[in-house]
Amino acid sequence: MSRLKDWFFSKPPHTPPYVFEDMEKVHPRRLLRAFGIDWMASPNAWVAPVWMLAVGIVIGLVVESHASAGKRLLLGLAYGALILASILVHYLGGAVAGRLVGAPMRQVVFTTTLAR
Q1: Could you give the C-alpha distances from 90 to 7, 93, 95, in angstroms and in order?
Q2: pTM of whole model > 0.85?
Q3: Is residue 36 pLDDT above 80, yes or no?
Q4: Sheet holding 107-110, edge to edge
């Protein structure tokens, strides 16, 4: 039983390659307090919406090949906005679920690549 507990609660030997910030060293700032949750961001969190919009633009350019370039760009921005909105809805859903089971979420920290 202790081996299983050690496996679940041990830290990985190194930071995954997709994580660009060491949260042990970065001090996030509070953006706002909404729904009883502190919404915080690391100093480099502004990069995340930029790359999500870029991914949306690439999707728009590839998928909507029959439309004009301007229309594909706008559709790509809409796809990127949907990615951002889905992340926010995901964390709000986690907050609601936490309250329902008695384990309220205290904060969400947005980083360059992930929210935690």
Answers
A1: 27, 5, 9
A2: no
A3: yes
A4: 29-34, 37-41, 107-110
The string of pLDDT tens digits covering residues 50-59 is: 888 888 888 8
Domain coordinates of the chain in residue numbers?
2-110
Would you state the pLDDT for residue 30?
A: 93
Burial of 110 (0-12, 13-18, 19+ CB in 10 A): buried
Helix axes 69-100, 47-63, angle to 10 degrees: 130
Using CA of residue 75, residue 89, residue 17, residue 19, what is the dihedral sign? positive
Which letter, b or e, does each residue of 66-86 get, where b requires 16 or more Cβ atoms within 10 Å of its Cβ?
Answer: eeeeeebbebbeebbeebeee
Provide CB contacts within 8 A for 49, sequence distance 6+.
Answer: 80, 84
